[in-house]
Amino acid sequence: MKKYLWPSLKMTLVMLVLCCLLYSLVVAGIGKLTPGGGDGEKITVNGKVVGYANIGQKFTEDKYFWGRPSAVDYIASGSAGSNKGPSNPDYLKIVQDRIDTFLVHNRGITKEQIPAEMVTASGSGLDPNISPASAYIQIKRVAATRDLDESKVKSLVDQRIEKNPIGPDVINVLKLNVALDQLNQK
Amino acid sequence: MNTELLGVIITYVLTVLLAIPLGKYIAKTIKGERTILGFMAPVERFIFKICGIDPNKEMNWKQHLKALLTINFIWFIYGFIMLITQGSLFLNPDGNPSQTPDLAFNTVISFIVNCNLQHYSGESGLTYLTQLYVVMFFQFVSAATGIAALFVLFKALRDKVTDQLGNFWVFFVQSITRLLLPLSIIVAIVLAFNGTPTSFEGKDSIVTLQGDSVQVSRGPAAGMIAIKQLGTNGGGWFGVNSAHPLENPNYFTNVVENIAILLIPIALVFALGYYLNRRKLAKVIFGVMTVGFLFILSTSVYSEIKGNPALSKMGVLQPTGSMEGKEARFGPAASALWGISTTATSNGSVNAMHDSMTPMSGAMQMLDMMINAFYGGIGVGILNYFVFLIVAVFISGLMVGRTPEFLGRKIEAKEMKIASVIALLHPLLILAGTALSSYIIVHHPEADWAVKPANWLNNPGYHGFGEMLYEYTSSAANNGSGFEGLGDNNIFWNVTTGFVLILGRFLPIVGPIAIAGILAQKKYIPESAGTLKSDSYTFGLMTFAVIVIIAALAFFPALTLGPLAEHFSLK
Questions:
Q1: Are residues A75 and A142 in the same domain?
Q2: Which of A158, B119, B356, B532 is least surrounded, with the fewest CB atoms within 10 Å of its CB?
């Protein structure tokens, strides 16, 4: 084994320089050229940062579209899913509670109309998106709270749909809500 | 729903189309022929010069293993020291603490063995220094170790009698300079331009639109994510791995990362065919692996799209399928594809929480890791498959009454003994580990560890048993994904899975290489009419049967107690 000790030690050092130092400098350098400058893409309103485009935020007020339930309450210093198994009775109770809350805030909606994603926690706890269906069933509530025309809110939602020909269509909740605030100011 | 299935098909087909030319390229590289990355040759010569290595000196199989084990041992010492001192070292903008010795033991082993089981969360359990200079370092070198071991097998299977099987250092260095590093740079650039952070800035504090103050974890993640996928490592920058919207920002990056998971393991199968000039053999191996992979994949996709029966019973409609633990931008079909890709290849990164998937998907993911040879980990997948091949050759030889031969070499008692031990080691590690942890939960629920056994499981009943079974399966298969509800950061899990990891990595490398080394020195018997053709589809079927029988017989009872029981109780 002794014969291989020195080459192994030196090889370790060389690879630390090549795969760690040089490689991460190259990637960091290229990152500077990207839209967010490598820090993550931010969203600003009137010059003030209100969040990251890819990081979901907690929305509980009726005037905003809500995102999905989160196991970490959208605290983005960490990330986690619920890790609840599909047959766990505690989990099924939590889902039932979420359904009840959703129905209280969205009058006129029935249980069968709620897409499953609005009552199940996301994988990261920071999911920035919802499906168009999940936005549509919130239009009535949002429009009523903001005193806006439902058709106007609906067309705003439609504009915000990010189409995906081979996967699910999504809407970025933060971007939608920013646009919604601007609609009110007009 | 149909469009989501289209996404799955496109991703898989693209992967195979890319893997074929890559396999050809890898074969050319080992042969020493001119390739497009020929300009790396001076860099490699420079590296050999500094390290005092003569690249032209060939090694026999024992020397290969000695070099491999020595450098791995050095990495262990280096990594362990770094992790238990990281809190007081530089590049730690978030002020994260050092790891406890048992956690550091588990972490360092897990990354050296290409497993990347993570009993910590990236945002708080590591610093930028250890993320890059320990974790990412191991992601490169452990993948290169696997490839170097596989190349020894390639050399041994040529049709000449020799004990000279190439040079370990050349295989190792070229795996990095000609394969892993260039591909990683490409993937990292794609990720960076789609929103994955690359800079060294620490946590950011923001006030949200609704007025809450939150902190956002960041860091130079793009480079690490690229190699974690390409090297079948799987350990993520952020706690939830590629479910995190910075680690995997959109559907496009999801396709790219999923391709990166499968690409090299599949390409190596083609490389075997091109290198040995036995394309039919490679086709048969690829065929057997693909049939197994697609069967497991379709079961999981179907189960996820159908949704969770318990929620349907409550009256929740699941038009898109089961969504607990999944991200809206990927949806159930792409999440199921990822779950099967990552467990088939011993990668272990996740884009959805496996703990929350439907029981059938959980069963399929475990089955994938129990077999661990449908494509398999980088390099080691084919080594595992080779063990099954030897067993299949032996059994078919007995069935037709001929001397068992593989590629012109007799398979005799010694090789067969090694192959049997390696094939049986995997079930032994998994089942004994699960039995031990189950015993402790029942008989010592109040043991005084960081997490009491009574609190280990995040879910009751069959699913809870599944969490333990999954953890040992993932460790033995060097996979690294988990049913993450398990409270695994305590001395029991850190130490037991640590040992399972070492045994599950190095014995399945040592065994096949020993067999290959012994075979290479045996007399070469040219194929004749009396030879059992190892590149026929009949023999492929035979290998498939051996794999199914070994996996099914050994693991079926355990799977029945866990996910299968949950599946049937949900109906």
A1: yes
A2: A158
Residue-wise pLDDT for B501-520, tens only, equals 999 999 999 999 999 999 99
Q: How many domains does one find in chain A?
A: 2
Q: Looking at the complex, report in whole angstroms how far the Cα of residue A162 sits from the nearest Cα belonging to chain B.
A: 10
| Chain A closest-CA separation from residue B501 CA (Å) | 22
Is residue B217's pLDDT more than 80? yes
**A23 shares a domain with A53:** no
What is the residue range of A91's domain?
Answer: 40-185
pLDDT band (50, 70, 90) for residue B117:
confident
Between positions 212 and 271 of B, the ones with CB within 8 A of A are 212, 214-218, 220, 222-223, 226-227, 238-240, 243-246, 249, 251, 254
In this structure, how many other beta carbons lie within 10 angstroms of the beta carbon of residue B449?
A: 19
Residue type for position A55: I
Considering only the beta carbons, identify the residue of A12, A19, A86 that sits closest to B74: A12
pLDDT digits (tens, 9 = 90+) for B128-156: 999 999 999 999 999 999 999 999 999 99
Cβ of residue A70 closer than 8 Å to a chain B Cβ: no
Tell whether A33 and A46 lie within a shared domain: no
Same-domain check for residues A70 and A113: yes
Cβ contacts below 8 Å, chain A against chain B, sum to 365
Same domain, A15 and A104: no
Q: Inspect the interface and report whether the beta carbons of A122 and B326 lie closer than 8 Å.
A: yes
User: Domain check: are A176 and A105 in the same one?
Assistant: yes
Strand bridging mode A129-130 / A170-172? antiparallel
Phi, psi of A115 (to 5 degrees): -65, 145
Would you state the pLDDT for residue B402? 82
The answer to whether residues A77 and A34 belong to one domain is: no
One domain for residues A89 and A71: yes
Domain range list for chain B: 2-570
How are beta strands A42-45 and A48-52 bridged, if at all?
antiparallel
Residue with tokens 């033991």: B105
Q: Are B296 and B368 in contact (CB under 8 A)?
A: yes
**Phi, psi at A51, each rounded to 5°:** 155, 180
Length of chain A, in residues: 186
**Chain A residues in contact with B181 (beta carbon < 8 A):** 18-19, 23
Test A167 with B189 for CB contact under 8 angstroms: no
Chain B, residues 476-515, CB within 8 A of chain A, namely 483-485
Quote the pLDDT of residue A186.
65
Residue B249: half-sphere exposure toward Cβ, Cα within 13 Å: 19
In this complex, is the C-beta atom of A32 within 8 Å of any C-beta atom belonging to chain B?
A: yes
- A49–chain B Cβ distance below 8 A for any pair: yes
CA distance B352 to chain A (A): 5
Of A41, A82, A166, the CB nearest to B7: A166
**pLDDT level of residue A184 (50, 70, 90 thresholds):** confident
Are residues A167 and A126 in contact, defined by beta-carbon separation less than 8 angstroms? no
Count CB atoms within 10 A of the CB of residue B83.
27
Report the residue of chain B nearest A127, measured CA to CA. B327
| Among B201, B327, B351, beta carbon nearest to A39 | B201
ipTM of the complex: 0.95
